[in-house]
Design a protein that fits this description.
29 strands, single chain, 4-stranded antiparallel sheet, 5 helices, 490 residues, mainly beta
Length: 490
């Protein structure tokens, strides 16, 4: 039996959005910082920001600011002499001279970035107080130039209009011991920034990692707000990209007619090693102040119950808190609806697996009825041991008759436990007829009211735990036999 996995002990704090008012084009600034609680986030040093619409990525170090600049109008508003840096360009050589005032002597960092935040060139050098000039060589294109030192930080937008330069570089030119002008002296130090282009309606995904743990927050920026990351201490397995045959061959014993074989190609993803436990789910319910009726007014499904109390092996509600039944803290959560599974997955920055992801992860490279081979024994899964599969035999035929702690049985080749038995697992998909042609990252039927559940449970015969077996239930269904696991950003 595995040691209990404890849910959420730390948070990645405050992504603060401020709308700039000094420019006429749209700009959002996200100040990203980290708070370490319980040691989980101490190794986190950056957030990866993906613009899913544009396909670009920027990495924002802890404490830095991400500026999203509206791509449709930013070019029209470029001003090379803003932000405390004076710029002059030499079109024939492809160089630009940067002059700025250093309030104190000491090390300074100078760097140029493309508009989507990629660093092109950088220089760390010691400068004296006063005016300093540097030469910047850049290929044709648009850039953000950042200068920072002790007591000052400046930025400028620069459009290099020559193609003469093929490589980027920075070198020191001159120093002049002069007093700063009042506006320059009064400029307060600001943390470094990273810039990324943005257009109205773009979908962004912020992702941070801490060891095996991942926190992701999706966003479509529209104005000032605060978004919080939550790290869940949920062990995950990296599932590699690949192509497999989904469904079962016509020769497989006890197959169903809805298991039509077809080729499926999937991109890589991460999946929780274990089914979500009572302890983990209770932490979510209590963090969101969800009452005994299981309703989450601020969620995506405010009129749908997420879970129902279960005094046997599940969660109970007392006073203002949800808690696992004693002895079942590390058993899979049960009596959770599809809505409840979805809300939890969203809460930790993930989603439910698609039916294709589930079967691919379950099989872990196998093509047999189970990832254990042609049979499933009482030593390999929690199911109704009195009814093994296709002539298989069990050394014990009296099964537990209830849920078991996650990880009680050996994991498959992808490191995933209980893909067969214990509890059925909700998938994201609506139930529908399989296609007969090859698919890439399929998401299931587009219509239908039932949601897919997979894997079989503690009360089912072995045949219903097969890798290809599929069944469905209403999204508001709750049962002693249904739980779930989650997929996280790879």
């Amino acid at each position: 039996m595995k040691t209990k996995t404890t849910f959420i002990r730390s948070a990645l704090a405050a992504v603060l959005l401020l709308t700039a008012t000094t420019q006429s084009y749209a700009t959002f600034s996200y100040t990203i910082s980290f708070t370490a609680v319980g040691g989980v986030t101490t190794s986190v040093g950056s957030v990866e920001v993906k613009n899913l619409t544009k396909g670009t990525t920027a990495t924002v170090p802890s404490g830095n600011t991400l500026t999203l600049t509206d791509q449709t109008t930013a070019v029209d508003e470029l001003n090379a002499n803003d932000g405390g840096i004076r710029v002059s360009q030499n079109g024939s050589t492809g160089t630009s001279t940067l002059t700025f005032y250093a309030e104190q002597g000491g090390n300074a960092q100078v760097a140029a970035y493309t508009i989507d935040g990629r660093k092109v060139t950088g220089l760390t050098t010691r400068l004296e107080a006063g005016d300093n000039s540097l030469e910047l060589t850049l290929p044709a294109g648009m850039y953000i130039v950042r200068v920072s030192g002790t007591g000052y930080a400046y930025s400028a937008k620069l459009q290099s209009q020559t193609s003469a330069a093929t490589q980027a570089g920075i070198k020191f030119l001159t120093h002049t011991n002069v007093e700063a002008s009042a506006p320059q002296k009064s400029k307060a130090y600001q943390p470094a920034t990273t810039t990324m282009t943005y257009s109205s309606g773009d979908q962004l995904l912020y992702t941070a990692t801490s060891g095996a743990y991942i926190a992701s927050v999706p966003d479509v920026p529209t104005g000032s707000k605060t978004t919080n990351f939550n790290f869940a201490t949920i062990p995950t397995s990296a599932i590699p990209a690949g192509t497999f045959t989904m469904g079962s061959p016509t020769t497989e014993v006890n197959r169903s007619s809805d298991e039509t074989q077809h080729s499926v190609t999937l991109t890589a993803f991460r999946m929780s090693k274990y089914e979500i436990t009572n302890t983990q789910y209770a932490a979510f319910l209590n963090a969101k102040s969800i009452g005994s009726n299981g309703l989450y007014a601020a969620g995506a499904y405010p009129t749908q119950a997420l879970i129902y109390a279960n005094t046997s092996w599940g969660l109970t509600y007392s006073g203002s808190q949800w808690a696992p039944v004693t002895g079942y803290e590390n058993a899979p959560v049960i009596n959770v609806t599809w809505y409840g599974a979805m809300e939890y997955a969203t809460y930790i920055g993930g989603t439910l697996p698609t039916e294709a992801q589930w079967e691919y992860a379950c099989r872990a490279g196998t093509a047999t009825p189970f990832n254990t081979g042609d049979f499933l024994t009482n030593l390999q899964a929690n199911y109704n041991w009195a009814y093994p599969y296709n002539g298989g035999t069990n050394t014990v035929i009296t099964s537990p008759g209830k849920t078991q702690a996650v990880g009680t049985y050996a994991a498959n080749a992808y490191g995933l436990s209980d893909m067969h038995g214990n509890v059925w697992e909700w998938c994201a998909d609506r139930y529908g007829t399989y296609p007969t042609t090859a698919q890439t990252n399929p998401t299931g039927a587009t219509t239908g009211s039932y949601r897919v559940i997979r894997g079989g449970s503690w009360r089912n015969d072995a045949q219903f735990c097969r890798s290809a077996f599929r069944i469905a239930d209403g999204p508001d269904a709750d049962a002693y036999e249904i739980g779930f696991r989650v997929v996280l950003v790879h």
